[in-house]
Write a structure and sequence with these properties.
5 helices; four-stranded antiparallel β-sheet; five-stranded mixed β-sheet
Length: about 475
């Protein structure tokens, strides 16, 4: 820790003979020098990758139109009738905010956050200008005309079938509270799976991991909790492996569950649950690196920090190696991805079903140290950015053929009716110099900035062919 000497005399900076430099001039000179070092480090860093120096935000001209973000102007209406108990309990005496309106199922702004069925995305009927467009927050139909149920999920691209698979929590059941102070919940129904060739029209492949109705001792009994399922493929064993957060109704079990299948569409056989490395585990994800090594990342120590460690070669267990990261920062919902040798991660704060500010993090090694880069959200308005566009991240999916371009996949939770929670898919771009220095010294990192752009309506670039 650096201590300041209160008895130290003011420092005089000598410039030309007989003159002094103002402190502001010195500060700006130092800033300019640091920026020069940062640009030099970028050139050196990129030089080993073919010598291409890209200082623009976009790494692909096809994606530049998505960087022209949209702004949102939402006026909070005057009170009309009684607020819902949930909103009144959250902030009974203070002036109403957009977050209060978001959580209030009786709000006059309900249609802004949760548009009605008339505006739903319907791949089987949208043959006009809306075809292949994403509308964050709208109801999204599958190819049978039913709302997609794949919350807290992730995407797997299957090489053998050249198909995308979207796995997530199937929440098509009534929302209730197990006890007075309990969080809103839906009984476990299972893990839903959807397939697609273009990441837009999704076919329902059914529930690939089903709940247990009778055996109350089973992890998958409907009274328990199954969240954030992720699936990866193991080339050595030929198995599709699913990891998920497993808990009891009071969130005291805090474990991970593992299931396997011979096919991406299941059925998956549930193996067991455990506390990874002996620690409590709640929000989690799985990341498969370029060399085939898979890692688990999970919130632990009552969500005060994240843990990360490699899985065994068969992806069915953790090894003894584990690192604690982002200690004391209270982050959850990790979504990890990689670009040009640098590892990136998006996390959220811990505020239950209420939305909060996302943060981006980066590291040269997946095991750390991890640096916090700040809020990646751009566009909307200040409240949109501070609430991750009223959503919580769950996965970041790379777009093949578009270097530095990804889809940020998030859930807009509806705690009044969890089955009606929505999906927020937005373009995420890695590019341009980082805009804040490292925490542990005065230098700037060599990695690029992460930006998530808000759009009411957007589509993938026409040059993207969909399949790898």
């Amino acid at each position: 820790m650096t201590m300041r000497n209160k008895y130290r005399k003011p420092t005089t900076f000598h410039c030309n003979a007989g003159s002094r430099c103002s402190p502001s001039a010195v500060v700006w000179s130092l800033v300019g020098f640091l920026l020069f070092l940062h640009l030099y480090s970028l050139v050196s860093h990129n030089g080993g990758k073919g010598g291409d120096v890209q200082l623009h935000t976009s790494h692909h001209t096809l994606f530049r139109e998505l960087e022209e973000v949209e702004e949102e102007t939402i006026q909070i209406p005057p009170p009309k009738g009684k607020r819902s108990p949930r909103a009144a309990k959250r902030r009974p005496k203070r002036s109403t905010t957009l977050i209060d309106e978001f959580l209030d199922e009786n709000s006059q702004l309900r249609h802004v956050f949760f548009p009605d069925m008339k505006t739903a995305i319907d791949p089987m009927n949208d043959s006009g200008n809306d075809s292949l467009n994403y509308f964050p927050g709208r109801i999204w139909f599958d190819t049978e005309g039913n709302p997609i149920q794949a919350h807290g999920g992730g995407i797997l691209y299957d090489e053998s079938s050249r198909t995308y698979y979207w796995y997530g929590e199937y929440k098509d059941g009534p929302t209730y509270h197990a006890h007075k102070k309990g969080a809103a919940r839906v009984d476990i129904i299972g893990v839903g799976c959807y397939s697609s060739k273009d990441l837009w029209a999704w076919k329902n492949e059914g529930i690939v991991l089903e709940a247990e109705e009778a055996n109350e001792t089973c992890d998958l009994h409907k009274s328990n909790v199954l969240e954030r399922p992720k699936v990866i493929y193991n080339e050595k064993t030929g198995k599709y492996v699913m990891w998920m957060h497993i808990d009891d109704g009071n969130y005291t079990k805090a474990a991970v569950g593992i299931a396997i299948s011979d096919y991406p569409t299941g059925p998956f056989s549930y193996l067991h649950s455990k506390r990874p490395h002996g620690f409590d585990s709640r929000d989690m994800t799985i990341f498969k690196d370029d060399d085939g090594v898979a890692y688990i990342i999970y919130s632990s120590e009552d969500n005060s920090e994240l843990h990360i460690g490699p899985l065994t070669e068969d992806y069915l267990d953790v090894t003894h190696v584990v690192r604690r990261i982002l200690i004391g920062q209270h982050r959850e919902a990790p979504a990890l991805f990689k670009y040009q040798g640098t590892y990136y991660m998006i996390t959220s704060g811990c505020t239950g079903w209420a939305p909060n500010e996302a943060l981006a993090h980066a590291a040269e090694s997946i095991m750390g140290p991890w640096e916090t880069m700040g809020n990646p959200c751009i566009g909307g308005n200040k409240m949109f950015r501070q609430t991750t566009f009223f959503a919580q991240g769950t996965y970041v999916f790379p777009l093949s053929g578009l270097p530095g371009s990804f889809i940020f996949i998030a859930d807009r939770w509806n705690p009044a009716d969890l089955r009606d929670s929505r999906y927020v898919w937005l373009p995420l771009i890695v590019g341009g110099p980082a805009d804040r220095p490292l925490d542990y010294d005065f230098g700037f990192p060599v990695w690029s900035r992460v930006s998530i752009y808000w759009h009411r309506k957007w589509r993938l670039p026409s040059g993207w062919r969909g399949l790898k």
